[in-house]
Amino acid sequence: MLFMFFFVVVLAAAAYGIGWLIDQPGSLILEFAGQHIETSIPVAVAGLLSLIAATIMIWAIIVALVRLPSRLAGGSRERRKAKGLDVLSQGLVAVGAGDVARARKAARLAEKLLPEEPLTQLLVAQAAQLAGDRTASAKAFHKMTLNPETKLLGLRGLHIEAKRREDAEAAAHFANAAHEIAPLPWAGSAVLEHLAATGEWQKAREALEKSVNAKAIDLPTAQKLRAVIETAMAMQRESEHPNEALHLSRQALKRRPGFVPAATTAARVLIRHGDNKQAMKAIESVWATDPHPDLAAVYLQALPEESNGQKLARVEKLAKLAPQAPASRHALAEAALAARDFAKAREALAPLVAEGQHPTAHTCLLMAEIEDAENGPSGPVRQWLARGSRAPRDPVWIADGVVSKHWLPLSPATGRLDAFEWKTPPHSAPQIAEEGRANLPAAFLAGPEKTPALTVEPAQT
Predict the structure, then answer these.
(1) Best-predicted range by mean pLDDT among 88-102, 316-330, 402-416, 444-458?
(2) Tens digits of per-residue pLDDT, 154-167?
(3) Region 233-249: what's the mean pLDDT?
(4) Which of 340, 339, 384 is nearest to 362 (CA)?
(5) From 18, 230, 343, 447, which residue has the greatest number of CB atoms within 10 Å?
(6) How far apart are alpha carbons 162 and 156 in whole angstroms?
């Protein structure tokens, strides 16, 4: 509205000025190159305006002609870019759909139409990955690292390719390079796992803190990983630096209450120091909320001089902290069996083998051992063994489908930290073997100390 008002005012002023000029008397005389020109002032002004208008028009035509080739080229580039973006879209859809031929065709065309477009190299790399051409894929990712805008994406692609060909050093190199540019979660995790796999736990701890400070990892996850790393450090220093090991394991328990590997490590260190009572208290404090066979095994290590009857009394006290837990009943049954208190052993397992229950293989094996120890080889022994062969499997330490006898800080299959869980394994899960742990630090190849078995006292006559 203001513009219209301004336009009307200017137009009125111009009309008034022209009218005033026409009303003025006088003439304009011009002598140039022997020519004598005389005209009125309005005609002279009109001629001057016409000359200016003609000059502007001629200049506009000249400029338009000069710019015509670039405009034609620009239009061609825009059409080329539009076609290239359409090809990129079709290629990425083909990659997502798993159409190898269409994806590779789109990648070749995109390289011709948009060779400098970052998405072009991504399409080329993904199409090559889909086709199984790792050389072409690595070449495309490497080209992406030369562009600051796509360097991180290229490094991640190279990291993935290195992991696929099981080149741990190259994978760690690319992850480190990315981590130095930006604290990305995948890079921080890769660096952390590489340091853990080589047993450099202190450096792994420092790398984790850097990720936490950069907010590349959430605090609950960081606390869990801190506990895992500190437990691993404690296990590594258990023999040569017991004081440090005890401090680290207790710190891990504070970060992650009820963490069984930290509790067992702390108890073993205390037993090594001869402080058996503190070791038992440490296990009892965890048993109440997280009863576990590993804790029961270390608990018995704290009772080396006691008789089987005394051990049974100790285990009864431990079992009362979590009386309904299968681990409590198994530990009590094993202690009673060693003390030849068959009634108490049966009583401990009774709720697990009652009608309507589905006893696990370990429960069935214990019942077979009780029958054999009390009555000798008999039909019930064979029945329990047969039942155990069909029974549900007991929980074990399992990570990425691999079963381990002992907890380990990282997966032997993938190198993932905090991968082991105590749960029932699938029937196809392979048992861990020494040769399957080649990528673990030597400190964990042997596993924790073996627990001495309960000795069976001879029957009293």
Answers:
(1) 316-330
(2) 888 888 888 888 88
(3) 92
(4) 384
(5) 230
(6) 10
Identity of the residue numbered 251: Q
User: If pLDDT is split at 50, 70 and 90, which confidence band does 434 have?
Assistant: very low
Nearest 5°: the CA angle 51, 54, 58 is: 140
Higher pLDDT, 265 or 457: 265
Residues 50-69: tens digit of each pLDDT: 888 888 888 888 887 777 77
Rounded percentage of the chain residues whose pLDDT exceeds 90: 39
Task: Say which residues have a Cβ less than 8 Å from residue 152's Cβ, sequence separation at least 6.
Answer: 178, 181, 182, 184
User: How many Å apart are CA 461 and CA 452, to the nearest integer?
Assistant: 27
Q: Which residues pair with 421 in a beta bridge?
A: 398
Three-class DSSP category at 421: strand
* 209 C-beta neighbours (distance < 10 Å), count: 12
The 8 Å CB, 24+ separation contacts for 373-381 are 373/337, 373/340, 373/342, 373/456, 374/342
Amino acid occupying residue 373: A
With tokens 């140039």, the residue in question is 32
- Alpha-carbon distance of 138 to 157, in angstroms, equals 8
Q: DSSP string of 106-134?
A: HHHHHHHH-TT-HHHHHHHHHHHHHHT-H
Which residue type is seen at 105? K
Rounded Cα gap, residues 411 and 432, in angstroms = 10
**DSSP of 200-267:** -HHHHHHHHHHHHHTT-S-HHHHHHHHHHHHHHHHHHHTTT-HHHHHHHHHHHHHHSTT-HHHHHHHH
Written as six digits, the tokens of 315 are 């285990």
End-to-end, the C-alpha distance of the chain in Å comes to 118
CA trace torsion 448, 454, 455, 461 (10° rounding): 180
Q: Supply the mean pLDDT for the chain.
A: 83
Contact 346, 359 (CB under 8 A): no
Return the closest-CA partner of residue 345 out of 328, 370, 379: 370
Which residue do the tokens 């009673």 mark? 336
**Looking at this protein, which amino acid is placed at residue 253?**
L
183 alpha carbon, distance to own chain's centre: 13
Structure-token match 């400070």, residue found: 213
| Those residues with Cβ within 8 angstroms of residue 201's Cβ, 6 or more apart along the chain or in another chain | 195, 229, 232, 233, 236
d(CA 120, CA 100): 16
pTM of the model: 0.68
Q: What is the pLDDT of residues 89-136, one digit of tens each?
A: 888 888 888 888 888 888 888 878 887 787 788 888 888 888 888 888
